[in-house]
Structures are given as C-alpha cells and as structure tokens.
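Appendix B, Record 12. Input sequence as logged:
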Amino acid sequence: MVKLFACSLLAIACLLGADDVPRVDLHAHIHGETPKDKDMTPAEATAISRHLGVRLGVLGEGGCSGDIHDDRTLVAFLDSLADQPVWRGIQVYGFHWQNCLSKANLDRLDYIAADALIFPFNGKNIWLWLPGVKFPDPQEFMNQYVEFNLRVLAEPFQVWANPTYLPESLQPEYDKLWTAERMDRVIAAAVKNKVAIEINARFQIPSAAFIKRAKAAGARFSIGSNRHVEGIGEIDSCLQMARKCGLTAKDFFVPARALGH
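Logged structural output:
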C-alpha cells in the first residue's frame, strides 16, 4: 500500500509508487449510477482512499442540467466535500455550462473534466454508452465523432474523460476505426489545449498505441476509475497500462491543491 501524505504538485513524489506513477483516481463518483443505486458519503470515500492508498478526485456531474446545474447546486457539492482530503471536480456536459455556473465558483474546483459521449446525430443526442447504440456507416460516424471530439477539446477544462470511447457495437473495430490520422488529430487538440488524456479503468481505454502516440506528441495523462461508488480508487489496470507505455510522474496531471491526511 502507498502511504498518503499531504502534498502539492511540486511534491508529487509523495503520491508515487515504485514505478514512478501517481496513485490518483480523478474520475470517482460517489453518487449512484442510477436512481436505484446507493450513494456513498464523502467520509466513506476518504476511508476507501486511505485503505487503497489512492488519492481521489470526486466528480460531480452537470453543467446546465443534471445534479449540478446552477451556482446553488455547485456550491452545495463543493461544501459537501470541504472537510475531506479529496480533490473536487465536475464532469460537464454540453457547451453552455459556463453560462450556468459562475466563474467564481468554477474557480473553487480543483479541475474540470469533459467527454464526447453525448453525441449529436441526425438532430438527436445519442448517449453512446447505452446498449444497442448502432450507426449504419461506422466510417461516417467516426468522421463526425472526431470532429465532435475536437469541438469538445476546444473547451476550457483539464481532463478528457473516456477518451476514444466507442459504442459497444463498434468496440470490436476499435483499432480499425481509430486510424493513425484520427488519433493524431485528437491528440494534437489535447496537447494544444493542455488537456490531460484519461487512462480509464472501466472501459480500458485508450489503447496502448494511442497512449504511446500521445506521449510522443507531448500529451499529459490522468488516471480514472470511472466508477460510481463500487470500484472507486481501483486503478490497477491504469497503472499497468502506464507502465506498459513508459509513463512516469512527469507525464501526469495532478491537481495543484495540497491535500491533508
């Protein structure tokens, strides 16, 4: 187990294992994934963090809709975690969240994450993670999907969550659909806009080929379990991928705020 100490970005060594990879999970949700699922208290999340030796970034979700949709709900989220040694982030959806959440309160967050999983197609928003999502022409979908990812990556946030995710129906074709040209376009956008690319435990993405290309291009990375309550902090697959791709502490984004014990 990695012992946790208060530290800042300049003292990132205190979060490292022997492999020089930080033990952090910046994609941890403590609310249930569905209304039927149980939530976790902030104190319970801290207990898991200490047990696993993994620092947590707790993500709320929203923007102009969802659990966090205005300053009142954002402040309530921030205050709920104020006495816990965790980082506080929000996973935003859409392109208008800055109109609904004030800069003063956004600045109280340790980081902001975003993804491209709510995909506009033929006048509708498609939730790409749901079962049964299919597209008649995978190549045309990818052309539009890359352009949509580029639009998302132009927004002001720090962590690109669920990068390169494909609907379940297209996942067997991942290596074929994520061509070198497509990878390079989204990687270049992440590097240009200083957005860290998440290594995601839940979906086992991005591929090693993508990560190695991104590292060569000067990208930074983050680590995320992408779990709701059950499984937060469980990042062994991410650490294994980081080692496989030759990533070390200098390649990772970690929020700057020092955390207590």
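The chain has nine helices and ten strands.
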